[in-house]
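Reviewer 2 asked us to include a model.

Predict the structure of this chain.
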Amino acid sequence: MQELLALNDLWKQYALGKLQKKDLEGRIFEFTLENYHRFHLFNWDKDTCADYLCWLYPRLSRAIEAYKDIGASFDSYIGSLVYWAAREYRSREADHYGTECACWTARMEEMMVCSNEPEYLEAGPVAKGLPNSQQLLILLLKSYFFISDDFLSRIVPIIGIEEQRIRHWIDEIREQRLKRDEEVRNLQERIYGQYYRCITYESKLTTVSVGTPLYEKMQSRLQRARVKLSAMKQRLKGCRLDPSNRQIAEVLGIPKGTVDSILYTVKQKWKVQA
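Predicted model (structure tokens):
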């Protein structure tokens, strides 16, 4: 490989018109990469320096245009640019790394959840005294999400209500379910953002001197963020996707107490017969 010219010599050739600007930029990139140890770039290896110089490359064009051959040499000028821009690059990379870690940490808990397969009890003797038609209707709407079209068609004659009417009630409950799903998703996204905010505050606290006003300010923000995160988690825990007794009562146009009473009666009946 031919020995690279010093940056001052490259600038002279460019100033005399013997070297095009694009060629000068490429030669500066090549020279800096081959002599990266001269710039004291945080003990980076050559591959890291190559990534950094690729990030820095667009600035070289502006730096060449801004340079005036007065005072410091071109070699010192480029050296200062490479060194001080490296501090910004390092800071940005650390921030990007912290952001990625925070985002993955915020979602890791949900991603690692493994739901156990449902355990199906062995079929026992058929209980006596099956629910009446009104009780069957409430149970059907309560568990609508698991009702197939075939099952619905077979149970409609037992309930004694038109199938189209029951499907209309199920569609109303399904629309309410879709709205709740959207609300839950929005709340989850907000929790992810709040979780990331807490992690960011914790990370920044490690870079601030303890006891300083900035440290106290960041610590106060962290405490408020944690309190808000806890409240949002409690709200998410209280969200339910299955239809409530009140929603079923509103769909059927009957008092909520009637639905409560019917379901209570069914539970007690099956407890006694279990």
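The radius of gyration is 35 Å. Residues 31 and 55 are 16 Å apart (CA to CA). We have added this to the supplementary material.
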